[in-house]
Amino acid sequence: MKLNSKKVTVQKSANELCDYLADVKNFEGLMPENISKFEVLNERAFIFALKGMPEIALEVKEIDKPNKVVLGAMSDKIPFALTGNIEPVTENSSTVELLFEGEFNAMMAMMVKGPISKFIDTLSTNLGQL
User: Which InterPro entries does the UniProt entry name for this protein (predicted)?
Assistant: First the structure.
């Protein structure tokens, strides 16, 4: 299953935005209002939970500065990745589009598509407000 957020413009250079997304502490400020848990596990990983959803542990898997940051599930039970694709616009602004890719059976995909779409759209919107 693949889901894309809308592309948003951020008032940060591509390098600054890449650094921002690579620092897992910053994700707490990007989370939706219905977050029930956020905890930094180490400098490359964090765990979070939204009300009514199971906890999800994410870690930085890849950084291709200044173009891309890839976060992935720490557990192999539900393999997925969340990629931030960054494009420079000017010296002080860039765009970012979030791409979610996960391997789910058809039943699970139907159940998670709506909440995940809403989640990545919220992250994207909050990035645009930086």
Answer: START-like_dom_sf
Helices assigned H by DSSP within 12-81: 14-22
Helix or strand holding residue 39 (H, E): strand 35-42
Tens-digit pLDDT profile for residues 76-114: 777 899 999 999 999 999 999 999 999 888 898 888 888
pLDDT of residue 114: 87
Total domain count, the chain:
1
- pTM here is 0.91
pLDDT of residue 24: 97
The residue segments making up the domain with residue 94 are 2-128
Q: What are phi and psi of 15, to 5 degrees?
A: -65, -45
48 membership: H or E segment, kind and range:
strand 45-50
Nearest to 84 by CA among 58, 55, 113, 109: 58
Task: State the pairing for strand pair 80-90/68-73.
Answer: antiparallel
- Nearest residue to 8 via CA among 117, 130, 91: 130
